[in-house]
Amino acid sequence: MNENLINGKWLGGASTLQSWNPSDTRELVGDYAAADAEQMQQAVAAARAAFGAWQHTTTQMRSDFLQRVANQMMAEKESLGLLVSREAGKTLAEGLGEVVRAAQIFQFFAGECLRYGGESLPSVRPDIGVQISRHALGVVSLITPWNFPIAIPAWKIAPALAFGNTLVLKPSEYTPGVAHALFRILAAQGLPPGVANLVNGSGKHAAQGLLSGVDAVSFTGSVHVGQSIAQTAIGEMIRLQLEMGGKNPLVVLDDADLDVAVECALNGAFFSAGQRCTASSRLIVTEGIHDRFVDALTARMRAMVVGNSLDKATQIGPVINQSQFDKIQHYLDLGKREGAELVEGGSPVEAATPGYFVRPALFTGSHNAMRINQEEIFGPVASVIKVADYDEALVTANDTRFGLSAGICTTSLRAANHFRLHVRSGLAMVNLPTAGLDYHVPFGGTRASSYGPREQGRYAVDFYTSTKTAYIAY
Question: Is 27 a catalytic site residue?
Answer without folding.
Answer: no
